[in-house]
Design brief:
This protein is an alpha+beta fold. It contains four helices and three strands; from the N terminus they run αααββαβ. Helices cover 51% and strands 29% of the residues. A three-stranded antiparallel beta sheet has the order 2-1-3, covered by helices on one side.
């Protein structure tokens, strides 16, 4: 047992030193963990905020009403966009 593992485990001969050795020597495991973390980060950032803006003119005044849709995935956004744009006075766009 090397000195660093002995120091971390207090000299125990159980499974902890084996796990430490596994993570020190297994580059494939490290690469798999990095890929999993990157995938999780990429999936969590696949959402976008959108807004449906409707404008109505009445007596020379334009009234604007905005409905915000935070954190929609592309498939969700497409469904809500159809509903928004079915009303001829409304437009759909990314909320910035």
């Amino acid at each position: 047992m090397n000195a660093e593992v002995k120091e971390l485990t207090g000299g125990a001969q159980g499974s902890i030193p084996k796990l430490v050795h596994l993570f020190q020597s297994n580059d494939e495991m490290k690469h798999a963990m990095v890929i999993c973390v990157l995938f999780a980060v990429a999936m969590s950032s696949c959402t976008t905020d959108y807004v449906c803006v409707c404008e109505v003119e009445a007596e020379g005044t334009t009234l604007e009403e905005a409905t915000h849709y935070p954190g929609l995935r592309k498939s969700e956004a497409e469904l809500v966009e159809e509903d928004c744009e079915d009303r001829s006075i409304c437009t759909w766009k990314e909320d910035k």
